[in-house]
Amino acid sequence: MKFEAARYELPLTRPLQLGSERVLVRAGWLVRRGTAVGDACPLPEFSSDTLGEVDSAIASGKMTASLEWALSTLQAGGPATVRTAGLLVALDEQVAPTHACIKLKVGRRPIGEELDAIARCRAVGLRLRLDGNRSLALDVARRLADAAADALEFFEEPVAPSDLELAMRCLPIALDETLGEPGEVPSGAAAFVLKPTVLGLRRTLELVEVAQRTAIPIVVSSAYESAVGRAALIRFAAAVAPDVAHGLGTGPAFVADFAGWVQAAGDRLTAGEGELPAELEWVGC
Ligand SMILES: [Mg+2]
Fold it and tell me: How many A from CA of 280 to the centre of ligand 1?
């Protein structure tokens, strides 16, 4: 497949701690064929490929997971709209009244502050998605889930992999990190959180098949892609799970972004055809 590619860098509003790496600028490659544009931007420390590998692949005509994903998105154009969940970054932040559902990262602050944040969300009638990123003890996860009570939609990977099976017996667990690891996907998940940029095209499609066959809800999630990449994720989300609130609200993390590719209105995001800066340097691949 012939295409053009252009390297880009976009500054973030605040540093992003990704494992041991602190990221201030999001870098990737836009890929283009005709008027269709995609975004290959592996997330440092999380994606199965690296930006250096995409750099080499662009130069040598080889393929990487995120490049393959980006090229696959060139086949789907046109407008699409999905609902999104809000994201509570700081616990004392005002909860967004525009969203019916809020995602709250837990296990990062004293438990009292996290319980207060859960109570404030419940008080205004918000549904909750908690995400522990495998950092919690099971009894702490249960306390947080109890506090959310029937407002809890699901709990994303609260505990270490060794306790996952136990947690799945007592909590509605959404799988995220586990989906990127080799081996059989545990059954009985409340949802699959799919990050195509991290998983790559093949693994993403494999997991969509499993989810659809076993009636597990799919939540498509962004991994700090540019607006071009997020527009592709909106189209993908609208195709595989049109009625779900997806995790695609990472746009505000950017100081500057490609204009016009994603429009936000309330809890809805719409993918459109935007503009690209004239100074991008395109190379033929
Ligand atoms: Mg997660």
Answer: 33
